[in-house]
Design goal:
By secondary structure, the chain is of the alpha/beta class. It has a four-stranded mixed sheet with strand order 3-2-1-4. The protein has a four-stranded mixed sheet with strand order 8-7-5-9. It has a four-stranded mixed sheet with strand order 13-12-11-14. Helix 18 (444-464) packs parallel to helix 21 and helix 21 (548-570) packs parallel to helix 23. It is globular and about 90 Å long.
Length: 798
């Protein structure tokens, strides 16, 4: 029977290939063989839509919400003209089963021309045969896909047929070329674009069609204005100093900021830049060095750090804004360049050492390194959340759905602050990236568990060395948010990065400043060594193109880091309470995890000096840290005070909604966005995070077996939370109390579907795009610095 199936598959494959070959021959006969086209024009053509003004805004509204970043279907990125011209690919970026690492395919980095992409089997979505209006229309896969949706619109039903539309993120992709299109359209007539969503408007379609008919021309990007050039020149000079101190600091900055969308405070956030390594110096065109990781060998004797303008649409799932200003440059100069130390020799790029920041940067003051990350801790953690590791449930089931994060005060000495001793400790802090991108999946627990045990013993022994026996810990060990720069710029402003909230939404996550929601099940306290390892494990050291071993080792190593952060928090509790809490966090844990917990348990841990006055020390501790860090109000209203003052009837249902828990909370998707409409037309937005309760998060697979829906909770957040909404609700203030009541009374999937019937904006809703447009305008106006196009790949069909 198996051989029969293999034969059938082989026969079907031959048939498909044969049909594509015939179609290609017909197109070649009619319009000639395909050839990459130079579509750039010197000036605007009268009567022809202009790409940047007329076409990209349509893509931004209707296409970029799915076709951006690594997880864009068929790798088609429509967030820039370069992505459109590159086209699509049948290869997967996210492939957790590959045996060897794949070749990177980052737009603008791993190939510089469309010809190079064609050599790597990327196929066009614009016509590349004879250039005339008829051929341009007939040869445009993009236009055909849009037209197909117009010919076969979504059915006028509440839900789309799940047997026809698979909207899961791990669905099998159909990446049809223009030669294969007719077969695709016959087999899947309802799969026009946008996939599983309403068609674009007649006006937008006609605009795109006229542009395609004209040959899809594009004007050159407008050059940067002089104010931007001045800022770029100033910062590039700063990053390209010639002393060893300057070079080592710049390398450190680059390896921590390579994913940042940098903007200049003096000029606003209308233009972002990326910090890159280039073969060319300032004043010349950037020739970016392509490397898998920021600490890989640049393979050139000299290179330069450059600020490369971001020329693509900003999408929320990868947008990590980072502000540059004169004050920041002054602080970095004092911390790293004017400080009294020497860099005797610059480190190399051997993977074994370059992947370990404690070795590479051992001559930079460790306290300065910690402050560098701590000053923008939300950004530092965001690298894990929004970097390429964030795609996929297996990558994120290592963390709880909702927890709070605090940090060790940078003034508290650690064993890594002493350069003479750091080298001895650093060997136990090795990371999986030392094995690069094609790694064995079988060594992680035995190899790194032993190293982690040695590191923990080193850490505890160092802490206890400050006392006669066992050290005592207090809240003073935590960073309160006190200014890190007051000795340099005199600023006493409180830093809100001292307390963070992390939400996990199954296969994606969010980090925000402040403490939001009810007190969580777990909390982390992060030290310098832990924060640096999180970055080098999940951001700088993670390769999305890596093989199964690399991805699995990264996931398993994160277990160590999570438990270390949790144990740091528990050290502040009485010993008996800490032990009970630890065991409750790991119910039904795997044997290897229990072994690791036993290692922590048998250590001579420091005692805490905190006196507790209640029968619930953990919650008392969280309250005291909340006050100590002056965190944003964890019960902040989901709607603006002025709005609630005008519509006071909203207060009570909002409070009731946040208290919904158990089965009712579990029936909601992980992330929902709610628009509230008042009788006078005022509209506001808030988000609902449904926090799943896990017995433990140490199991790599079968996550559902560890869920306890009876203990799920909700958190309301003002504005947009997260990049991947699963549902939009549109609720009038008059009906808001009823909306909340319906949610609180839900007991079954049928109850949730009924709620959707009355309040949701489903995929088939004729107003779907109107709501999406409104949301993005609201987001940009109200949360400007953080805003970007949200992703609709996970929008549910229930």
């Amino acid at each position: 029977m198996k051989s029969k199936h293999l034969f059938s598959y082989f026969f079907i494959s031959l048939f498909v290939i044969g049909c594509a070959t015939i179609a290609q021959h017909q197109l070649d006969q009619q319009w000639g063989e395909p050839e990459v086209q130079n579509r750039e024009v010197a000036e605007y053509q009268q009567g022809v839509p202009e790409y940047h003004r007329d076409i990209q805004p349509i893509f931004d509204k209707r296409c970029v919400s799915c076709h951006a970043c690594y997880d864009g279907p068929c790798q088609l990125k429509l967030s820039s003209y370069d992505g459109l011209d590159r086209g699509a690919s049948k290869e997967l970026v996210y492939d957790g089963a590959r045996i060897v690492a794949a070749e990177p395919s980052r737009l603008g980095v791993d190939a510089k021309t469309t010809e190079e992409w064609r050599a790597r089997d990327y196929f066009p979505v614009l016509n590349e045969r004879a250039q005339n209006p008829v051929a341009n229309v007939q040869g445009s896969l993009l236009l055909k896909m849009l037209e197909q949706k117009r010919q076969h619109p979504l059915p006028q039903t509440a839900q789309i047929d799940p047997d026809v539309f698979d909207v899961s993120t791990d669905r099998a992709q159909e990446c049809s070329t223009i030669e294969e299109y007719e077969r695709y359209a016959d087999a899947h007539p309802q799969w026009g674009m946008p996939f599983g969503l309403p068609a674009i408007s007649d006006e937008d379609f006609n605009t795109i069609q006229r542009w395609v008919e004209a040959g899809s021309p594009v004007l050159p990007q407008s050059p940067l204005g002089q104010p931007y050039l001045d800022q770029v020149s100033k910062w590039e000079a700063f990053f390209n100093g010639q002393s060893n101190k300057e070079k080592l600091f710049s390398r450190y900055a680059y390896e921590h900021l390579f994913l940042a969308n940098i903007w200049f405070e003096d000029l606003g956030n209308g233009q972002y830049f990326n910090l890159v390594r280039s073969r060319t110096p300032s004043g010349q065109a950037i020739d970016e060095i392509a490397s898998r990781r920021p600490f890989d060998d640049p393979n050139t004797k000299s290179f330069y750090y450059r600020l490369k303008p971001v020329r693509s649409t900003i999408v929320d799932k990868t947008h990590m804004p980072y502000k540059f200003n004169d004050a920041r440059m002054k602080v970095w100069r004092e911390w790293f360049l004017n400080a009294d130390y020497e860099v005797t020799k610059l480190p190399g790029y051997d993977a074994k050492r370059a992947s370990n920041p404690f070795i590479t940067f051992k001559e930079l003051p460790a306290a300065a390194r910690y402050k560098f990350m701590l000053q923008e801790a939300e950004f530092t953690i965001m690298g894990y959340i929004k970097g390429p590791v964030c795609r996929g449930q297996v990558a994120l089931n290592v963390i709880e759905d909702h927890f709070w994060v605090f940090f060790v005060d940078p003034e508290v000495p650690t064993m890594l602050y002493d350069p003479a001793r750091a080298e001895n400790y650093a060997g136990n802090l090795r990371l999986p990236a030392e094995d690069q991108s094609t790694a064995s999946p079988f060594k992680i627990w035995t190899k790194y568990a032993a190293l982690q045990e040695k590191h923990l013993n080193d850490k505890i022994d160092y802490i206890n060395s400050f006392s006669d026996g066992v050290a005592e810990l207090s809240l003073d060990m935590l960073w309160s948010g006190k200014s890190l720069t007051s000795d340099i710029d005199g600023s006493e402003a409180h830093n809100s990065n001292a307390a963070l909230t992390i939400f996990r939404h199954f296969d994606n996550a969010t980090v925000v400043n402040g403490l939001h929601g009810d007190k969580p099940k777990t909390a982390w306290v992060i030290s310098y060594s832990l924060l640096e390892r999180i970055h080098y494990l999940l951001v700088a050291g993670f390769d999305v193109y890596g093989n199964l071993g690399h991805q699995l080792n990264t996931r398993l190593y994160m277990d160590f880091l999570r438990m270390e952060g949790e144990s740091n928090f528990l050290m502040l509790l009485p010993d008996d309470v800490a032990e009970k809490e630890f065991l409750s966090w790991y119910q039904s844990a795997e044997e290897k995890v229990e072994d690791y917990l036993n290692v922590l348990h048998k250590m001579k841990l420091p005692h805490n000096a905190i006196e507790y006055g209640s029968n619930d020390p953990k919650n008392e501790l969280l309250d005291r840290i909340y006050d100590y860090t002056r965190a944003e109000n964890r019960r902040v209203s989901a709607l603006p005070k002025a709005y609630l003052d005008q519509f006071p009837e909203m207060n009570d249902p909002l409070q009731r909604l946040e208290k919904v828990s158990g089965i009712a909370a579990s029936l909601l998707p992980e992330l929902a966005m709610v628009r509230v409409k008042a009788p006078d037309g005022q509209m506001q937005l808030f988000s609902i995070a449904s926090n799943r309760f896990h017995e433990n998060v140490s199991s790599l697979f079968m996550e559902d077996d560890f869920l306890v829906p009876e203990r799920d909770t909700l958190t309301l957040y003002p504005g947009v939370l997260g990049s991947y909404p699963k549902v939009f609700f549109d609720v009038h203030t008059v009906l808001f109390d009823h909306f909340v009541e319906r949610i609180s009374q839900m007991k079954s999937e049928e109850d949730y579907v009924s709620l959707l019937d009355d309040f949701a904006v489903r995929r088939t809703d004729p107003t779907f795009w109107d709501f999406s447009d409104w949301l993005h305008v609201w987001y940009m106006f109200n949360q400007s610095e953080k805003s970007g196009i949200v992703d609709l790949n996970r929008y549910e069909n229930r």
